[in-house]
Amino acid sequence: MADDLAKPEELLENSGYKRPATGWMDTPIDIRPGMYCYASNPKSVEYVGLPNPRQWNPLEDDWKLPENWQEIVHKGIKERLEKFRSFKIFMDVCVRCGACADKCHFFIGTGDPKNMPVLRAELLRSVYRNDFTTAGKIFKSLAGARPLTLDVLKEWWYYFFQCTECRRCSVFCPYGIDTAEITIIGRELLNLLGLNIDWIATPVANCYRTGNHLGIQPHAFKDMLEFFVEDIEDITGINVEPSYNKKGADILFITPSGDVFADPGTYTCMGYMILFKYLKDKYGFDITWSTYASEGGNFGFFTSHETMKRLNSKMYAEAKRLGVKWILGGECGHMWRVINQYMETMNGPADFLEEPVSPITGTKFENAKSTKMVHIAEFVADLIKHDKLELDPSRNDNQIVTFHDSCNPARGMGMLEEPRYVIKNVCNNFYEMPANTIRENTFCCGSGAGLNAGENMELRMCGGMPRANAVKYVHEKHGVNMLACVCAIDRAVFPALMEYWVPEVDVTGMSELVANALIMPGEKDRDTDLRGEPLPGKEDE
Amino acid sequence: MNKNYMFSLIAVIVLFLIAYFGVETAGLHVLFGIVIPYLAALIFIVGFVYRVRDWAYSPVPFRIPSTCGQQASLPWIRQATYDNPSSNGGVIVRMILEVLFFRSLFRNMRFELKGGKKLSYIWEKWLWLFALAFHWAFLVVVIRHLRFFAEPVPFWVQFLEYLDGFVRVEFLSDVLQVGLPGVFMSGLVLLVAVIFLFLRRVFISQVNYISLASDYFPLFLIMGIAISGILMRYFIKVDIVGVKEFTMGLATFSPSIPEGVGVIFYVHLLFVSVLLVYFPFSKLMHLGGVFLSPTRNLANNSRAKRHINPWNYPVHVHTYEEYEDEFREKMIEAGLPVEKESN
Amino acid sequence: MVIDTYPPDTSRFIKGQKDPFANPVGNTTFEGLQTLFDALFDDMNREAIVSSLDPIIRIRAIQDFTPSKAISFIFSLKKIIREIANKEFPDDQVADELFLMDSKIDNLGMIGFDIYMECREKLYEIKSNEFRNRTYSAFERAGLLKQDCC
């Protein structure tokens, strides 16, 4: 009997498929706790002068919208159609082939059809057709058009804040339709009505005021780094005291504040400091940190193009004020999309800076000669290639490492090999995850684009499931216990994701691994890594 | 769901009836043979040009290519020159691969654990294959039809016909088949592919769920065009000489209605005309859009060469001075350098 | 059956896509069910049952399911087994075995409930501790919080 029954295939296959009861246009929005982030705090919205600051709650019927909200949105769409060819084309050319449908981590994780990239875009496209196209005006719902009602607006809010702008769908789209672009515009429209989430709005206001998302004031920023100095001295016996806001330094260093203030990014931050000290002692490398531009990340990017520009402006402004030659950027995902694809267009030209040249190897960073900002992975890969770092990778032998390509460096930049090259040179145990989950096919952490709040934990666990699943695979197959990444949001959110799905795996940044392996001139015999864990062979001491 | 394709199917059937009775019963040969085709061609050309111009003249404020491979960075790291192009040459190759071979659809691959735990990957290639077959077949069919609009028929059209036909007269019995056309692959491939594209909209649930009436309509229309064309060619013979006389008349702007061309020809012609009219107002414009998509046709070189946003405008920023004014005392106390020692 | 508890349109995806990385839900469910069946007809080792049920329920605990729906798939095993038993053994000498099977499945249901609760508790633990783990612990290590608290 057992043999006849034990066929889970049958269980899966004999379970007849039924048609959905209602089409997507007729399926009402259901805002589910755990899947959405809290509404923006009016004080934050007001501080940066964005529209309609007020206390509101997504679960209540009344969203306290301005009276003419439909008109505002209509005008907003019109204006953006005139400003962005991308938006116009992406509204027009989708053939709904479905190639993107199962590429989205949120669809895979939640199973909600409106999380298929094509439907996420159709939410906005349907209104576009209704208001702006001949076919939509004549044929209405047959042409996929529908008027903008309050329910449609709520749907926009709910689903545009269930997209991490990771661009995975765009890789598979035959027309390159990028849902990130549609989400960006969708969020811009929502922001015209004051419909943001607090996890974005408050970091934006903080960053505007204090220079970083957490609102840490300059003295506390310094205190935090000073603390790392002490910690590093305990571990290595070397004082790595950095310089702050130093005029005339050669290079300005900017990294996301998450590295300074949140574990385990803090260890990555310690990694930067150790590396810079090493380069300073050996090669006279002169780099400074800024408290004014103390945020690499840019939550303005998740608000509107204008807000992105306002926050990003600090990088060039500070580089100019300090009179540095060029800027070095730390490990961050969307920060690098902004730098690579937006910064100089928005806030350039950076003619007050020099074309970046590594003062140690003499390498000209041709690919950054106009923007004048170099990624630390590019910089360190060049150092290692030229044999400028003394490394002992065996110090990382307790880590069996895999690398997660963060969405933005992968699909908004193409920085795939540099971090791998670095990691393979500082670690002896490295395993790739399956090929359709890395590089340009990488799965998002599920918490990017401002969705790394606490209240939407179910959403984050769903969205991160495909990534966690691939990590679990290499964990089981190769014993991987360390997930490396070059993104501060990744470092902030992966610990929770791993804790739920693959609790045996920890999270690190590239620079932490580098610093563990880096042999500093005059250092003491290290017993522990930066986290205070015993180094291989030192467990008994 | 059903509503969507039923509506489209009925619309195409109604078009058929209109053409059939319009010609057969009402005798409106001039309307269906001359007026509508001219009007349709005009709407198509004006509409298509208008839409493409409209796109082409809208600004590209930011350089936002989807990078699908290694960037150009350090000289010893091998760049994915066309999946992540940094030069115009790379972009051209990327666009050629995209437009002619549907590179992005081709990426649609998946991994499978076969048997035990052995990992292998296969391409999820059906959509790619049939989409490619559909578009290429459509192109070949369109080019073949140029024979009706040029005298003498250009050699390359004849050559294409030669390649396309796979059962040619010379292989058949002289007695029975003389003068019969060979079978053209393109027409059959087109029909098979369009039926596949239709069936996947019906049977693949995700695709079914996202499909609109405006997705089914062109499929039915193209099916109608293909079927009526195949019928004319192989089954309900029309007077080819008469047709050519007629199409040459259209092409030289001296239209006349030939005698004895069957009603099926008018059905075919109306379907084509409707497709032309429908084209600029619909998703079929992806034909033009694919060339202009900013995530595909731009080089990923905005760090090496500044991209200009034509509507870039100044914004409110929080200056260093404002920042220092707010935090000066704390900064001084913490030993951070300041521009001014006191307010 | 399990898959059918998802929206029909999704269930098609879950059933259709065989790739374990493109389709973790389907793959996990499938694998979990396989081992679950083995355990059901074997000695009902709790560990084996937990390891097969956990991945399935872990997913359902964060998706849009009520607690009852999240573990209801276990009880639908009864129906499946009856259908097959009726087909295979129409002479109904299996009543005793079915009774035994039912109680085993009830047992699975209770274990499933434990797992579901554990997952939800884990989730709330992550929710409430994440910010603390991330930020406060960094601040605390740095001694920046001392003067503010207590």
Automatic annotation (TrEMBL), chain A:
<keyword id="KW-0004">4Fe-4S</keyword>
<dbReference type="InterPro" id="IPR009051">
    <property type="entry name" value="Helical_ferredxn"/>
</dbReference>
<keyword id="KW-0813">Transport</keyword>
<keyword id="KW-0411">Iron-sulfur</keyword>
<dbReference type="GO" id="GO:0046872">
    <property type="term" value="F:metal ion binding"/>
</dbReference>
<dbReference type="Pfam" id="PF13183">
    <property type="entry name" value="Fer4_8"/>
</dbReference>
<dbReference type="InterPro" id="IPR017900">
    <property type="entry name" value="4Fe4S_Fe_S_CS"/>
</dbReference>
<dbReference type="GO" id="GO:0051539">
    <property type="term" value="F:4 iron, 4 sulfur cluster binding"/>
</dbReference>
<protein>
    <submittedName>
        <fullName>Redox complex linked to DsrAB, iron-sulfur binding subunit</fullName>
    </submittedName>
</protein>
<keyword id="KW-0408">Iron</keyword>
<keyword id="KW-0249">Electron transport</keyword>
<feature type="domain" description="4Fe-4S ferredoxin-type">
    <location>
        <begin position="85"/>
        <end position="114"/>
    </location>
</feature>
<keyword id="KW-0479">Metal-binding</keyword>
<dbReference type="InterPro" id="IPR017896">
    <property type="entry name" value="4Fe4S_Fe-S-bd"/>
</dbReference>
TrEMBL record, chain B:
<keyword id="KW-0472">Membrane</keyword>
<dbReference type="InterPro" id="IPR047660">
    <property type="entry name" value="DsrM"/>
</dbReference>
<keyword id="KW-0812">Transmembrane</keyword>
<feature type="transmembrane region" description="Helical">
    <location>
        <begin position="216"/>
        <end position="236"/>
    </location>
</feature>
<feature type="domain" description="NarG-like">
    <location>
        <begin position="124"/>
        <end position="287"/>
    </location>
</feature>
<keyword id="KW-0560">Oxidoreductase</keyword>
<keyword id="KW-1003">Cell membrane</keyword>
<dbReference type="InterPro" id="IPR036197">
    <property type="entry name" value="NarG-like_sf"/>
</dbReference>
<dbReference type="GO" id="GO:0016491">
    <property type="term" value="F:oxidoreductase activity"/>
</dbReference>
<protein>
    <submittedName>
        <fullName>Redox complex linked to DsrAB, transmembrane subunit</fullName>
    </submittedName>
</protein>
<dbReference type="GO" id="GO:0005886">
    <property type="term" value="C:plasma membrane"/>
</dbReference>
<feature type="transmembrane region" description="Helical">
    <location>
        <begin position="126"/>
        <end position="146"/>
    </location>
</feature>
<feature type="transmembrane region" description="Helical">
    <location>
        <begin position="183"/>
        <end position="204"/>
    </location>
</feature>
<dbReference type="InterPro" id="IPR023234">
    <property type="entry name" value="NarG-like_domain"/>
</dbReference>
<dbReference type="Pfam" id="PF02665">
    <property type="entry name" value="Nitrate_red_gam"/>
</dbReference>
<feature type="transmembrane region" description="Helical">
    <location>
        <begin position="256"/>
        <end position="279"/>
    </location>
</feature>
<keyword id="KW-1133">Transmembrane helix</keyword>
<feature type="transmembrane region" description="Helical">
    <location>
        <begin position="30"/>
        <end position="50"/>
    </location>
</feature>
<feature type="transmembrane region" description="Helical">
    <location>
        <begin position="6"/>
        <end position="23"/>
    </location>
</feature>
